[in-house]
Structures are given as structure tokens and as C-alpha cells.
Design goal:
The chain is built from 5 helices and 4 strands. The protein has one domain (2-132). With 134 residues, the chain is an alpha+beta fold. The radius of gyration is 16 Å and the shape is globular.
């Protein structure tokens, strides 16, 4: 019975990580933009900073079965401190989803216009599940 429970928990975690694309798929970033370019973009009303801590504060609402499993401030702090190579924040488009519905093969190549879920979705979801254990 314990093995079945462990297997079910593992499977649900894997499925949840796989479905995290919707969490912040609408968050558009310009991967090739320099730090100075990002800083300049934040002076526009159309671009803003989205922190990893912000995402960790709401990611559970988008993961099936985790809607009520909010991270505590301490868990978010732990996750940010143990984020590995994940950035602390991203400059994202705030007024629309750029290239929504596009079939452009270059959209998610990490070199230009990208969506955060394509670049970091699995890592952020994995970090969320790790933080739940702390």
C-alpha cells in the first residue's frame, strides 16, 4: 500500500510539472536583450519586473491538484535562496501576450522572443515542489 501511495504521489508531481506551461505562458521576455536593455524597458508602461518570488507565490493556483498548496513566506525564501541557475527576476510584457498563437519556430529558442514557461517552467515547478518539503 505504501508503494502505491508513493507511486501515485510521484506520478501526480510529474503530471503537475508537465502541465505548468499554462502558469506563466503569457509572460513574454526578450531573451537576447542585455541587462541595460531590460533596465531601459522597465521605464515603459508595457514592461515590468516579475520576480521568482512572485511566481512562487501563485504558481500553485495553476498546477492541477495544488490550488490550495500555497508556499509560506519561509518556503518562498528557501526556494529563492536555493534556485540554482534560475534568475531572480525577468522583465516581462505586461499588457499583452506577444505572438500569441504564432507558429513561428523561433519563438521558443532562447534567443529572442520567448515565453517564460518555455524557458523555465519545469525548473520553477520543480523548485515549487521542493519548497513544499521545507
Amino acid at each position: 500500500m505504501l508503494r502505491k501511495l508513493a507511486a501515485a504521489s510521484l506520478l501526480s508531481g510529474v503530471l503537475a510539472v508537465a502541465s505548468v506551461g499554462a502558469v506563466f505562458a503569457h509572460e513574454c521576455v526578450i531573451s537576447s536583450r542585455s541587462d541595460n536593455g531590460d533596465a531601459g524597458a522597465t521605464h515603459s508602461s508595457r514592461w515590468g519586473v516579475l520576480s521568482l518570488a512572485d511566481i512562487l507565490g501563485f504558481i500553485n493556483t495553476e498546477i492541477p491538484g495544488q490550488e490550495n498548496a500555497f508556499l509560506s513566506p519561509e518556503q518562498i525564501e528557501w526556494a529563492v535562496a536555493n534556485r540554482g541557475d534560475l534568475p531572480l527576476s525577468w522583465v516581462t510584457r505586461t499588457d499583452k501576450t506577444i505572438a500569441e498563437g504564432s507558429s513561428d519556430p523561433n519563438l521558443a529558442d532562447g534567443k529572442g522572443l520567448d515565453h517564460l514557461a518555455d524557458l523555465y517552467g519545469e525548473q520553477v515547478a520543480g523548485l515549487y515542489f521542493e519548497a513544499l518539503g521545507h
